[in-house]
Amino acid sequence: MFRSRLLGTALMLALASTANATSFVVTTDTVVRGLGASTDATSDVTSSFRDDKIVRAARDDAASFVASQGAIRGVKLESALAHIRQQSPALQASDAQLAQAILAI
After folding, report:
1. Which residues belong to the signal peptide in this entry (predicted)?
2. Contact (Cβ atoms closer than 8 angstroms) between residue 81 and residue 100
3. SS3 of 68, please?
4. pTM of the full predicted structure?
């Protein structure tokens, strides 16, 4: 009797740890995919606009935007975002991703 309870408890613990591990893997995969998409958008913008004067002039405004989590939107940053979107209409990146890309240049 004691042995069957011990075996049952061990089985339940094994199943519980598997469920936790699975949810951890799913969460980790989701975070990594999101980071990958952000990195791809950042590298596309960085390589395309490295020598662009409008984008390079927006660096300080981009730093303020990122540091304030989007609360501070400078004129040069707005101009650079519009310029980037006009030059690359297929680019699907948020303002925050583009501001980070400008800082990476």
Report:
1. 1-21
2. no
3. coil
4. 0.55
Nearest to 101 by CA among 81, 86, 82: 81
CB of 83 closer than 8 Å to CB of 55:
yes
Q: Is residue 65 within 8 Å of 99, Cβ to Cβ?
A: yes
Q: Output DSSP code: residue 49.
A: S
Look up tokens 């981009």; give the residue. 62
pLDDT digits (tens, 9 = 90+) for 39-67: 555 555 555 677 788 889 999 999 999 99
The stretches of the chain forming alpha helices (DSSP H) are 2-48, 53-57, 59-67, 75-87, 95-104
